[in-house]
Structures are given as structure tokens and as C-alpha cells.
Write a structure and sequence with these properties.
Strand 13 (210-221) and strand 14 form a beta hairpin. The chain is α+β, with helices and mostly antiparallel strands and 399 residues long. The chain has a six-stranded antiparallel beta barrel. A three-stranded antiparallel β-sheet has the order 2-4-3. A three-stranded antiparallel β-sheet has the order 6-7-8, with no helix packed on it. The chain has helices at 2-9, 43-48, 58-63, 66-75, 95-109, 161-168, 229-243, 260-273, 289-299, 312-323, 379-395, and strands at residues 15-18, 38-39, 80-82, 87-90, 112-115, 121-125, 128-134, 137-140, 144-146, 173-179, 183-185, 197-207, 210-221, 225-227, 249-253, 325-332, 340-345, 350-351, 356-357, 363-365. The chain contains eleven helices and 20 strands. The longest helix is centred in the C-terminal third of the chain and has 17 residues, at 379-395. It has two domains: 2-179 and 340-395, FAD/NAD(P)-binding domain (3-Layer(bba) Sandwich), CATH 3.50.50; 182-332, Helicase, Ruva Protein, domain 3, CATH 1.10.8.50.
Length: 399
């Protein structure tokens, strides 16, 4: 939508071929339906949020910045607000408003949208694109932009069609795999906490004796393991480790804002307050109710024990449990559940200054179909908006 609208705004006659019955199905579910459209981070910091390939996005991000995105939607009657971690959402907290704004953008710029059209081939003659084929129909074109998304959430239409089209035109496609994906745990007790969300916690992901990721924020227990923003961010390293046959471990710190001494002092205050109660009834002010039983069990302390009989060593064991709860990662959820697809059309075969194919004249790429994937926090949508804008302008010679 961003690519089509900017190309049309520049004077081109643009047709958007949409395989679904409506536009923006995936956009409408981003950010848990709230639409985390960008981040306020400095653009240099933005680059670091795409580990291993951020530099490819320099031209796109500077051509259409995070400030540009906010102005763009504001001008389309969607004001935005900044939240924790620089994440930006529509003021309405509704991702659907972003979709509606982009639909208005297409209407204003005169883009022709044809629904129910799944591209089956792109016609090329003498190395130059000529048309897009949708079954028995052909749509002539001087330029074609592949902006089909990746292969995650296939129900929204992202079934990997762009990879197939690119391969047929000679492009290399790096094997798609899940990125920003929930993690499965060996510890089955975690599953009993399904739906419990924790805020202001930290996790460290270790592989062997090495810490490979460290995040602070919000996480969620699920019927298979772990999810939530900080888990999705560390999942990149978990995927790498599992591919090498290694077992990564998530170390959960329930009270990262407190030093060991401060947390011990807090425990002593609570124990003094509830000195006549059983241990299992003394943690209600410290932990969510559903977490109390697992913490007691992991600490190895008898829940029936009177608080005033807990020894210093037992308190030390409890401190260890609260600040370092190891959870062994046995696998990741499928590509169907990944927030973002890693892999895609090789960056080496795309000009980063224009998003143009280096192999086929008149062919451009935008968004997740390219081998780019970033951390959670609005970075991936910004990349989609930026590469879409650059591709749309480049296709009409205005990059």
C-alpha cells in the first residue's frame, strides 16, 4: 500500500493486485491489534535493531524516517502516541486505523486496487519486466514491485508467493525461518501458567556458559512455553542455537530492579510481617498468586513451614529462585506463528539505494519478502513502510 500510493502520488498509473478480499489483513493484527507502527529511536540505533543486515536499510530509513511515518499518518487523521521503549502506536490503540488511513491514501492518489488476484508469474522479455500474470489474466507493467510479505501468519495471505516469484526470475532466496517467535520449554509446569503476563522482568539467554541475549520488559507464559516482547527478541539467538543442535536456556529474573541485598531485605520485611503464617501464605505481596506455588517448589522449601522457622540458607535458596529461574528451550513455534520471517530474497541481489533488482530491470522489492528482519518494538513495520516508499518512488524514477 505504501509503495503503490507513493508511486501513484508521483504521477504513475498504479494497480495494486491484492490476493485477499480486503487490504491490510496482517497490518490489522500487528502489536496485538494495537499497531506498533514505528519507534522513536535515533536512526543510527534503528540500524542496530536489524542484527547482521541493518546497513542495507540506510537509504530506505533516511528516505522515509520514523518521523516521516508519524507525520504521514497524522496527515491521514491518525495521531500517534509514544509508549515505553519508544514504541509508537495510534492514539486510538487500533491497528485498523492504520489500515483505513492507507486505504484513504490509495483513494487519494488514484491507485486501482483489484482484489482476489494471486500473482502466478511475472513476465520478462530481454531482462525487462513486461507484465504480471494472475492465472489467465495478464496485467501489463513497466515496473513491478513484489511486496507480498514473508511466510508467517499465512492466514493473512503471507504464504511465500514472493519467494517463488523471485526464484523464477533468477533471484536467490535465503531459506525462510521463524524470527520473533515464541519458545517451547522442557519444563511442563510452565504450561500451567498459561495466560500469566509478567512486567518489568528480565531474561538472559545462555548457550552453554555464554550469555547471548539479555532483555528487560514484558513476557507471557503459554500452553507450550514462553512468549511476549522480551522472549520474541531473544528468540533470534535461540533459533541459532537450536539449529546447531545446542539447547539454549532462558534465565528468568522476577525482580531485576532490586539488588540481591535489597531483595533479601524485602524478604525479611515480609517474613517479619507474616512470621506466624506458613511459607506458602507469605509471598502474596511479592509475587502474582499463580507464581507462588512454582516458586516454592523450585526453591525446595516446604510450603507448610512456618515463616519464622525459615533458615538463612533457605532464604538464600529463595533468592536464587527469584533471580535466576532456568527454563530449558526445547524448540520454537512454527513459521506460522512467527511475528516475522527471517530469510527471503537475497540482499546481495537488491540495490539498497532503490530497492531495485540487480538481475531484472523494472523489478523492485519491499518489506518482509527481502532477507531483513528486526527486533520487536515497531522496527519491522518501519522497515516495511520505508522500503515500500523507496521502492514506489524508485519505480517511477523519483528515488
Amino acid at each position: 500500500m505504501m509503495a503503490a500510493g507513493h508511486a501513484a502520488k508521483g504521477g504513475a498509473a498504479v494497480t495494486l493486485l491484492e490476493r485477499n478480499e480486503r487490504l491490510g489483513k496482517k497490518l490489522a493484527i500487528t502489536g496485538k491489534g494495537r499497531g506498533n507502527l514505528t519507534n522513536t529511536a535515533d536512526l543510527e540505533d534503528f540500524i542496530t535493531q536489524f542484527p547482521g543486515h541493518g546497513r542495507f536499510l540506510y537509504s530506505a530509513l533516511y528516505r522515509f524516517t520514523n518521523d516521516d511515518v508519524r507525520r504521514f499518518f497524522h496527515d491521514l487523521d491518525v495521531p500517534t502516541v509514544e509508549e515505553r521503549g519508544g514504541r509508537v502506536f495510534p492514539q486510538s490503540q487500533k491497528a485498523f486505523d492504520l489500515v483505513d488511513a492507507l486505504r484513504r491514501f490509495l483513494d487519494q492518489t488514484g491507485v486501482r486496487v483489484i482484489y482476489g488476484q494471486r500473482a502466478t508469474a511475472i513476465g520478462v522479455k530481454d531482462g525487462i519486466v513486461e507484465y504480471v500474470e494472475c492465472g489467465e489474466k495478464q496485467f501489463p507493467a513497466d515496473a513491478v514491485i513484489i511486496a507480498t510479505g514473508g511466510a508467517s501468519y499465512p492466514a493473512t495471505g503471507s504464504t511465500g508467493d514472493g519467494y517463488r516469484l523471485a526464484r523464477e526470475l533468477g533471484h536467490t532466496v535465503e531459506t525462510p525461518h521463524p524470527a520473533l517467535v515464541p519458545l517451547e520449554t522442557e519444563e511442563t509446569w510452565v504450561w500451567d501458567l498459561t495466560g500469566l503476563s509478567l512486567k518489568n522482568v528480565s531474561v538472559q539467554l545462555t548457550v552453554g556458559s555464554k550469555t547471548v541475549a539479555d532483555e528487560f520488559g514484558e513476557m507471557l507464559f503459554t500452553h507450550y512455553g514462553l512468549s511476549g516482547p522480551i522472549i520474541l527478541t531473544v528468540s533470534r539467538e535461540a533459533v541459532k542455537a537450536l539449529k546447531k543442535g545446542k539447547k539454549p536456556v532462558v534465565h528468568l529474573n522476577l525482580k531485576p530492579a532490586l539488588t540481591t541485598e535489597q531483595l533479601d531485605a524485602r524478604l525479611l520485611r515480609d517474613f517479619e510481617k507474616y512470621s506466624r503464617k506458613q511459607f506458602k501464605n507469605s509471598l502474596g505481596e511479592l509475587l502474582p498468586q499463580r507464581l507462588i506455588e512454582p516458586v516454592i517448589r523450585l526453591s525446595g522449601i516446604d510450603g507448610e513451614l512456618p515463616v519464622n522457622q525459615i533458615s538463612r540458607e533457605q532464604r538464600r535458596q529463595l533468592l536464587q529462585t527469584l533471580t535466576d529461574m532456568p527454563l530449558t528451550i526445547s524448540g520454537v513455534r512454527s513459521l506460522r506463528e512467527a511475528i516475522v520471517t527471517a530469510g527471503g530474497v537475497s540482499r546481495k541481489e537488491i540495490d539498497p539505494a532503490s530497492m531495485a533488482s540487480k538481475l531484472v530491470k523494472g523489478l523492485y522489492f519491499a518489506g518482509e519478502v527481502i532477507d531483513i528482519d528486526g527486533n520487536t518494538g515497531g522496527y519491522n513495520l518501519q522497515a516495511a513502510f520505508s522500503t515500500g516508499t523507496l521502492a514506489g518512488l524508485s519505480a517511477i524514477g523519483q528515488e
